[in-house]
Design brief:
The chain is of the alpha/beta class. It has helices at 41-52, 77-91, 103-112, 130-138, 158-167, 195-201, 224-240; strands at 15-18, 26-31, 57-60, 95-101, 118-124, 147-148, 151-155, 181-186, 209-213. The strands form two sheets. A seven-stranded mixed sheet has the order 1-3-2-4-5-8-9, with helices on both faces. Strands 6-7 form a two-stranded antiparallel sheet. β8 (181-186), α6 (195-201) and β9 (209-213) form a beta-alpha-beta unit. α2 packs across α3 (103-112). The protein is globular, with a radius of gyration of 16 Å. The two termini are 23 Å apart.
C-alpha cells in the first residue's frame, strides 16, 4: 500500500498492513517493544481487531528487529523514534493513531511530544523510566559482551545502554502530549511496572485515559488479551470518528 519504507540511514523497515475498510483518512500504526517485532501474537491480534472494526492498521518492525534491515545492536529509543517518523512520512496525509508497546510506548511519547502529525496516542505497558529499566533488567550484564535476557540474538550494546541512560526518564514529556491519549497497563507487569504509567500521567495536563487490567502481565497473556484489544479498539474507533 505504501511501497518500500526506509529510515534516515537507508535501512528498509518491514511492515504489514491490515486494510480494514481501506479508509484513506485514518490509520493506526503499531510499534513493538525491545527484542520484539511486528509479528508478536498480541500485536497481530490487536491489528486484526482494529481492522475488523474498519480501522486500517500498519504494524512495523523497528530497524534491527524482525524482517527489517539494520543491526539489533543499533536499536535505541532515539533511533526507533526516527524510524517512526519515516513511517509517518510514508503514510501521507492521514489522521494517525500511534500504538506503542513497552519500549515502543516510549518511542510514542518521544515522537508525539515533538511531532504534530500524530493525532492520538496509545501506550501499552509503556516504558517511562528508561535508565531504571535498563539497570534493573540488564545491569548485571556487560555491554557489548552480554545479551538481553540470555537471548543470543539480542546482544546488549553500549549504544542501547547509553541511550537509555541519557534519556533517563520520559515522565516530564507527559506535559507535552496534547492529543487524546490512552494508557493501558497490567497490575502484574514485572518487566515495566505499572508505576511507570502512573508517574507520567502525574505530569500530564490533558487528562489522558488510564485503563488498568487486573492480573495482566507485560504482554497481556491469556484473559488479558481480549480485554486489552477490546478497550483499544473501542478507544481508537472513537478517535477515528
Amino acid at each position: 500500500m505504501f511501497g518500500e519504507i526506509r529510515n534516515q540511514q537507508g535501512e528498509k523497515i518491514d511492515y504489514s498492513v491490515h486494510a480494514g475498510e481501506s479508509r484513506s483518512d485514518f490509520i493506526a500504526i503499531i510499534g513493538h517493544g525491545v527484542t520484539g517485532n511486528k509479528d508478536r501474537p498480541f500485536v497481530i491480534a490487536l491489528a486484526e481487531g482494529l481492522a475488523a472494526e474498519g480501522i486500517p492498521t500498519l504494524r512495523m518492525s523497528f530497524t534491527g528487529n524482525g524482517g527489517s534491515e539494520g543491526m539489533f545492536q543499533d536499536c535505541t529509543i532515539s533511533k526507533e523514534t526516527e524510524d517512526l517518523g519515516s513511517v509517518i512520512d510514508a503514510v501521507g496525509d492521514r489522521k494517525i493513531c500511534y500504538i506503542g508497546h513497552s519500549m515502543g510506548g516510549a518511542v510514542g511519547v518521544k515522537r508525539t511530544s515533538s511531532d504534530s502529525r500524530i493525532d492520538a496516542l496509545v501506550s501499552l505497558a509503556g516504558m517511562v523510566h528508561t535508565q531504571e529499566f535498563a539497570q534493573r533488567e540488564f545491569g548485571e550484564e556487560t555491554p557489548d559482551e552480554g545479551c538481553m535476557w540470555e537471548e543470543e540474538s539480542c546482544p546488549l550494546s553500549s549504544t542501547y545502554m547509553n541511550d537509555m541512560a541519557s534519556l533517563n526518564s520520559l515522565a516530564d514529556l507527559g506535559a507535552r502530549i496534547n492529543v487524546p491519549w490512552l494508557l493501558v497497563h497490567g497490575t502484574e507487569d514485572d518487566v515495566v511496572p505499572i508505576v511507570d504509567s502512573k508517574d507520567i500521567i502525574a505530569k500530564t495536563t490533558n487528562a489522558p485515559e488510564f485503563f488498568e487490567i487486573a492480573g495482566a502481565d507485560h504482554v497481556f497473556s491469556d484473559d488479558a488479551l481480549p480485554a486489552m484489544v477490546a478497550k483499544v479498539v473501542e478507544w481508537v474507533k472513537a478517535q477515528a470518528g
